[in-house]
Model the fold of this input.
Amino acid sequence: MAARKLLQLSSNKVFSRLSSTQAGKPPRVLITGGLGQLGTGLARELRKLHGEETVILSDIIKPEDEELAKGPFVFADVLDFKCLQEIVVNQRIDWLVHFSALLSAVGENNVPLAVRVNIEGLHNVIELSKQYKLKLFVPSTIGAFGPESPRNPTPNLCIQRPKTIYGVSKVHAELLGEYYHKRFNLDFRCLRFPGIISYDSHPGGGTTDYAVQIFHDALTTGVHKCYLKPDTRLPMMYIDDCLRSTVEFMMAPKEELSTRTYNVHAMSFTPEEIFEEVKKWVPELTIEYKPDGRQQIADSWPMVFDDSMARSEWGWEHNIPLEKLVEIMITNLRKVYNK
Done:
């Protein structure tokens, strides 16, 4: 697939800098929450570059046999500091990629659990990274902003007053990471991702997940029941651009970075706009709008992300616009559904 080739070419270029500075020794990477949408994809790309044994995937759920065959997997509960510590020491970890989190809508349904996983879990990985001098990556989100923030566009630095526990926990992560960087020289790095779209994972409870579900519905039921209003504009990104931004950002020299947290953006669209694009491939698709509690969340989020700082400071560029995203999703899901 062309998108995957672009990702691999870019990653090879970036990681050649690593080889030249560390005598070819690749980093050993631990990914928490690794069986989610981003973890399996990032592990796949890093293993392509440096071999199966360099990336240790971890989670608290049992992996499928297919995933287990791709490379090392360990049980890791982010709420158990000693468990994480043993993995870091025994596996000689250099980078820690912390994907464990409860997403926006799921977190609102279980706030105490979201506090434990999203905040207490972060405290464990950030303290562990300080202690063992790890490079730490923690993703943030469009949900880290609130209705008081400028929404179109939302700059890298502005007021942040999120209205979900997910957003609150991510602002906490951004600020704590910057503090640990300044106070303890921790190499903390954070990207605020838009909604991430991919064909090889199912929606996971986020407010932007309609933009994945619509493709599955187009090729199965033929009807998409959208929980957002037709004109609700939100930032989005195809997963290959997301993974590439993570790799490039992790490899960016420290001196190029003026901050530890950056917006990254690819496109913004509404349910109505993506519906019209999908209909070009599946003309019989229909849509029903039934806004629910997620509408209030979406109304407090950015409509368009300003990622000019990432583009100017470490060279971020997206490769996949909306039209190409729809083509990739439909083409690959047709194979899944044999259509």
Notes: Residues 19-23 have pLDDT under 50 and may be disordered. The CA atoms of residues 28 and 94 lie 5 Å apart. The two ends are 19 Å apart (CA to CA). DSSP finds 13 helices and 13 strands in the chain.
